[in-house]
């Protein structure tokens, strides 16, 4: 049961952050740039940076723990939640359930996966929707 909650909460977290970033960058791209092409480039750059930060934090945390722990870290995180995290627990599959932050998938893993998701959105814009130079 808790594994399902961990995975579902991490999935919702990654999707929520990727969508928030995409919406925010879309607004910036249309205000300051030329629209879709600027958005694709912004998504690539931001996705690459988030991927790098996630990789670095995973690497830094792996050097501090004993080698008998699994490579995918499940905690501990600070017990403070981000502003949107309590709202995730109202979504289907998590409604009526709750895990303390220390039992959830770590933010390092979620950040890494968010970077991949944002890069995937940029890739889909280029390959499926033909947003290219």
Note down, in words, how this protein is organized:
It is a single chain. The protein has 133 residues and is mostly helical. It has one domain. The chain is built from 4 helices and no strands. Helix 1 (2-32) packs antiparallel against helix 2, helix 1 packs across helix 4 (107-127) and helix 2 packs antiparallel against helix 4. The protein is globular, with a radius of gyration of 17 Å. The termini are far apart. The model has no long low-confidence stretch (mean pLDDT 87).
| Class from helix and strand fractions | mainly alpha
Order of helix and strand elements from N to C terminus: HHHH
Q: What is the mean pLDDT?
A: 87
In terms of quaternary structure, the protein is: single chain
**What percentage of amino acids are in beta strands?**
under 5%
Low-confidence stretches: none
Largest sheet: none
User: How far apart lie the N and C ends?
Assistant: 47 Å
Which key features would you list for this structure?
mainly alpha; 133 residues; single chain
How would the blueprint of this fold be written?
Blueprint: H1 2-32, H2 36-62, H3 85-88, H4 107-127
Quick synopsis:
The protein has 4 helices and no strands. With 133 residues, it is mainly α.
